[in-house]
Amino acid sequence: MTVRPLRLSYGSSLLLTRDVVTVSDTDTLLKDLIFTLEQVPRHGNVTSDGRLMKEGDQFSFEHLDNSLIR
Q1: Global pTM exceeds 0.70
Q2: Is 57 part of any domain?
Q3: Domain assignment of residue 41, yes or no
Q4: Number of domains within the chain
Q5: Among the residues of 1-70, which ranges form H helices?
Q6: Does residue 5 form part of some domain?
Q7: How far apart are the C-alpha atoms of 67 and 29, rounded to whole Å?
Q8: In which domain, by residue range, is 67 found?
Q9: For residue 33, how many other CB atoms are within 10 A of its CB?
Q10: Residue 53 carries which DSSP code?
Q11: Distance from the CA of 29 to the CA of which of 11, 21, 45, 61 falls in 20 to 30 A?
């Protein structure tokens, strides 16, 4: 998975969607992919459905499709 570098204005947010995250795994269906947050951002945060995520937290591709990850 790759996420292009993101630069946001202070106080703004961005939904992580298929346009932002590029995923490729020929052995796994997209609906079966699980992502693990290995490192929190140096500046800002990652949230899942409004809940602050920490290192080790996981989300699915469905979360991306349902606009739950910011």
Answers
A1: yes
A2: yes
A3: yes
A4: 1
A5: 61-65
A6: no
A7: 19
A8: 13-70
A9: 15
A10: P
A11: 45
* Residue in the block written with tokens 């409004």: 50
24 φ, ψ to 5°? -145, 120
Structure-block tokens of residue 6? 């993101």
**Residues 47, 27 contacting (CB under 8 angstroms):** no
- The Cα 42–Cα 17 span in angstroms is 21
Lookup: tokens for 31: 């609906």
* pLDDT by 10s per residue, the chain, length 70: 556 677 889 889 999 887 788 787 888 888 898 999 999 988 889 999 999 999 999 999 899 989 999 9
For residue 43, what are the contacts with CB-CB under 8 A and spacing of at least 6?
Answer: none
